[in-house]
Amino acid sequence: MDSRMKWLAEDKIAHRGYHNSRYPENSMGAFKRAIDHGFSIELDIHILLDGEIVVYHDDNLKRVTGVDKDIEKCTYEEIKNLKLLDSNETIPLFKDVLDEVNGKVGIMIEFKNGGKAGCLEEKTYKMLKNYKGRFIIQSFNPFSVAWFHKNAPEIIRGQLSGNFKDDNLSLLAKIILRNCLLNFLSKPDFVNYDINYLHKLPIKILKRRGKFIFGWTARNKTEYDNALNKCKNAVFEDFNPCE
Q: Which of 155, 184, 202 lies at the terminal end of a domain, its last residue?
C-alpha cells in the first residue's frame, strides 16, 4: 500500500461531513463538526455555470434546497443564499472548505462529473496544487479518474463503483462500471465500492490483484464493523464510530 494512503486505512471518515439536523450534509457546519471530532471528511464537488466550484452532492437542488433546478445550470450568485434543509447553512465554495480544513483532517473529494472530463478536473487541480493537507480524489466517472492519471499522476485517485441497479444506465454500461472494466484507463490507486456488494466477484478479483478496497457508506455500527471485515476502511454516516 502506498504510504500516502495510510490515513485512508486508519482515519474515521465522515460521509458528506459529520452532519446532523442542525448542520446538514456538505455544509461548512458539518465539516467544522467533523474537524472538532477528529474525523476526516468525504465531500462532493460540482462546477457551476460561471466556473465556480461548490460542495454539493445531488445534480439537482430540489432535495436539499427546495429549488427544482440542476445545480450546474446555476451561477454561484443564484444559489449562494439558498438554505440547506431548512437550516442556516448554505452551499459552500470548495475553496472556502479547503481554507477551513487547512490540513487538520484528510479529505476525500468526489468529482460529480457525468460527462466529459476536463473543466472541473483542471480547475480543481489548480486549487489542490497549493493545498498542503492530505487528500485524495475519486469519482464514479472513470474518465474523470483517468484525467488525473494522465495530467496529475502524483495525486492519489480512487474509482467509485457499486451495483448501479437503480441507475438510469444501459445494461452494458452497468456491466462495465460495476466490474471496473475501465480501470486500465484510469489506473486507480484504490477502488471505493458499495459495502452491500463487497462480497461480489469484482471485489474478489480486485483483492487477488492486491488492490486497496474502500467501502461506502456504513449507516450504523453493525454495517461499519461488517464492512471493515471485507475492506480496508469505510465512510460512515448518522452515527459515531468511536462510541
A: 155
